[in-house]
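Can't attach files on this board, so I'm pasting raw text. These are the components:
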Amino acid sequence: MKKSSLAFILAISGLTGTTQAAAQDHDMSQHQMTMQHAAEPARHEGIGVLKAVNEKAGKVQIAHEAIADLGWPAMNMWFALDCPLPGDIRVGDAVHFELMQDEKRHWTIVAINRK
Ligand SMILES: [Cu+2]
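---
Top answer:
Structure tokens for the assembled complex are below.
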């Protein structure tokens, strides 16, 4: 019992540490854990700067500004794309995007364009 509570505490403090350390760069799994309340399939708008494109994986990395209605601070993160990436967007461009949760509750970009 004692051993498992300790493991739990370590896991929790590990998570907190990771979340704070990951303000610069993180993956979707951390949002999964912190954003479980956002169950409705709502669209949320964001703005940021396109940092990288992984065409093979269908993902883009965006340094997004805070998204108040999701309670997200500004951060650098990868999103799956569920829409075409307009041909005029280049890495370094300011972008406007819309997010929705997919069936696995991963935050996915459903619209993106140059700001
Ligand atoms: Cu983020």
